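Usage example:
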Amino acid sequence: MKTGIAQIVAAVALLAAYPLVMSAFDNLFYVSFASRVLIYAIAATSLNLVLGYGGMISFGHAAFVGTGAYVASILVAEGVTSAWIGWPAAVALSALAALVIGAVSLRTRGVYFIMITLAFAQMMFYLVTSMKAYGGDEGLSLPARAELGFGLDLGNEVTFYYVVLALLLAALYALHRMNHARFGRAVVAIRENESRAEAIGLPVYRTKLACFVIAGAVGGLAGALLASHGKYVNPNVLHWIQSGTLMIMVIIGGVGRLWGGVIGAAVLLLLEHLIAEYPIGWLASLAPNYQQHAGLGVGLVLLAIVLFAPQGIAGLFSRRARAS
Amino acid sequence: MSKKFLVVIAAAALALNAQAADRIKVGFISTLSGPSAALGVDIRDGFQLAVKMNGGKLGGVPAEVLVGDDQFKPDVGRQLAERYVRLEKVNFLTGIVFSNILLAAAPMAWDNKIIYVSPNAAPSPLAGKQCNPYFFVASWPNDAYHEAAGKHATDKGYKSAYLIAPNYQAGKDSLAGFKRFYKGRVAAEVYTQLGQLDYAAELAQVRAAKPDALYIFLPGGMGINFIKQFVAAGMSKDIPLIVPGFGDDQDILRPVGEATLGLFDSAHWALDFDNAANRKFVAAFEKEFNRLPSVFAAQGYDTALLIDGAVRDVKGKVEDVQAVRKAMKAAHFESVRGAFKFNRNQMPIQNYYLRVVGKDSQGRLVNKTIGTIFKDRGDAYVQDCPMK
Amino acid sequence: MSSILILEQSLNGLQFGLMLFLLAAGLTLVFGIMDMINLAHGSLYMLGAFFAATLVQATGSFFLGVLLAIAATALAGMLLEVSLLRTLYQRDHLSQVLATFALILILNEAVRLVWGSDAALSMPAALSGPVELVPGLMYPSYRLVIIAVGLAVAVLLFLLVTKTRMGMLVRAGASNREMALAMGVNIRGLFTAVFGVGAALCALAGAMLGPLLAVQVGMGENILILAFVVIVIGGIGSIRGALVGSLVVGIVDTIGRAFLPLLFGAFLPPQFASAAGPAIASVSIYLLMAVVLYFRPQGLFPARG
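Running the assembly step on the lines above writes:
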């Protein structure tokens, strides 16, 4: 989607003004909700990097988000409350996990790659579930959000929102620059035709691995933010269904598009929330319990997109075909 | 285009922020689906019955009860709690069945100075070091039924006992409680997965160990499956089974059936308690829902009455949370269990009784009270609680 | 550790493995022949269990109810194949993954709308007692029946695949689809039939396991992942591989649930000992899958030449 500078500035301004408007109405719930959307946007964007740009169908991305979440949580639980230690640690360990998992997985192809990434994610899920010291499948509750210092209280919903927003915009900017750099073009070239890329001398395996690791690292950041936001983490964040949910976000938003992750996260989470909160009269008279069955709508939308609009919602808005 | 866009946004902002009028709002989160749904449904029905019998009011003020299903998932429970506390701005939060969901969701309430009243789970950390002024328990401390069962096992002279519980806080509490009062030998202490439904492996182990008695804490669907499989494996004839009261109440008696006859258990309440409040409750519940209430329904009912009494004492001014707390501590209400008083950690001090499964005059399976195990028992953790 | 205990746990592992085989067999055929990843396979298992719950209640006979449930699920499966899944054969794997993932969501909610979030299914009264296999071992007769049914189905499938014409077409399609097409095999009909058989197997597993586990929405998700592990280990497209893989997974799971906690109990506190066993079992299963994928991605008994 080719967005002009004016539209980007408008979008950012809107996002920046949002929490101020909401707190004017004393509605911190929606500020917190928006923070959650933005965090998932970061996670979905990281998956978009490896899935959309890289063409690697990783069904185990939740493993990296979960690793980040648990690393950040365990540190806080053990008394290390500084975000300056916790969040970089989460990113580093997720990157490490991605390096190990990627190094092994990328030796396989096609459907085997999908399966092996899934296998590794499930392994992490069961490992984490067995860690009774950190809650096991009851999860781990944290006493407070991480501390940023400089007088910034992350417990304040508006402050937290801005921090997340800043990180999301940084991630998107980095992705944008990467696209136009040699690395980004190499990634896309490999996705389009791997044997040709190899033939012209691109280091295929190394490039894919680097892409995988970067995606894992950013996913880990999202995980750390998620754990901090909810002050709670449990093994479900690593479950394969979560990987599926992230994939849905990327698909809905637009595979391989810069804003794909953001749009997908926003649409999915908003849809779920609106369906649960705000009953639509005529729909309720047709199916009285429809609010409990939001999954049906999500499933149908996803199916429709896969069958009819493989470029996702962002693709629907684009008149120009993606540059190949 | 941009001007229209702004108007739409403004309208949305206004709509999202519309507030409500003058009444008590209660957020009720419980497990209403899945194999253990019967527990949450009973608590909900008991709670809503009390409100209905009060003319839809709590403490004389019209009450709105928002009901949500945590689907046995801590993160769903937590999100519901956030919605109720932050968006709906409820005055009270209540309803959760399971300790793991409670520990994930209830902090949302007390971090925002909203009172959480537990109609069921009361894990031991909250009885002691982590006791919280915004956490009240209308049921029992987690260990209680198990302590009583342990004492019963000792009294019955069982030399060895095999223990099984799910691997979560309440499970840990349960076996710790049992061991606290059981003076025999513990043959084994096994923790199964929360929500596990196939016990073939565990049953084989029990059979090999040949204990004098088997004590299980497996609430809801877990218990139903275990007992059925226990009977199917032919072990019910050889090994006496002891359960805490919630291991064989109505939600389990009905699906498992006559195989439960003669089962001993411990509880703080039974259908046959002869006081005015209980007689009224049982009759009304049976009439309204066409089934007998379980101990969970009794707890839900008492929770509503506890809140009702507190709101009445503060004359409906629930915005003064400290006043509500004080009123709640005084517990001015007629409980179906008889006398009710709080310990200083805001968990009940009460009697625990021995019950056995038999048939009532209509041939239905019920628990009958046959003795008292503990009188005025609090819990083992209150000394660590800094509250006064 | 007594021999009775070992025997009983082995039977439990066998029972679990055989039920897993029912799911894996259908999955491996679909994957092997149609080259389609079908995540909704677990939903057919769930559908079978729910149909069984209603039909057993309606007919009053467990046997009849289960039979009808199998037929109903097979029909539902074939309808699904003809209307929707057919369009996915030509698509890439990602689209198949997403579309069938969407199907999981849709079917979960559809079941919830029709039946509610769970249903009750009890084992037949005649089978709810134990049988004395050896002196000292009273094994639940229902589980014995499951083992018997699982073995019978395994034998039947072998016969079907190796001795019948359809089986020959299936093997041809699995080992070389293009050639089979070129030879004029009615691929469409074959595919629908294969899908129907797969759905029937799922329904049988769901209906039989219903009384032991719980019939609830979402019950397919966990067992689906295990089925995928099994077919990867065994070899995509191979029934023999599915059987071997299922038994391996059954044994590992049993060791993890039954024997490891005993071992760990010697030096770990009970809560940790109980948690460590199943965790190690699960991790080992996935580790095994990863190892197979890395060194021998076509599996232990590859169908393709």
